[in-house]
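Handout, section B. The chain below has 117 residues.
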Amino acid sequence: MEEAKRVGRRKHDAQLKAQVVAECAAPGASIARVALEHGLNANLVHRWRRIAEGRENGGLAERPLDQFVALPLPTPAVPPPSVDIRIELRRGPTIVRVTWPGSAAPACAMWLRELLR
């Protein structure tokens, strides 16, 4: 009588993965031998090693969700040099020119509003 083939993939717990990766890291260890001892495919063990070393993304299921991931921030843009506000008022032959610092624009708006009342 033939043995039925397994359907789907086997799931291996984190403890087994850690143990296999640790055994492979031992001096003189053969990945193929360690895989055979645990009934695993050597390619799978190679993949676990790459994931453990951070050389391969193991998917969300194998990555701890509580790890902090540092992302580079873009360098802040240098603000443009302050531009002055220039106002020119004419009434008949009289001309009044006012130069106001752009950094104080709200104060300039209040002054102009009071002046034009």
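Note. The first helix runs from residue 14 to 25. Compare this with the example in section A.
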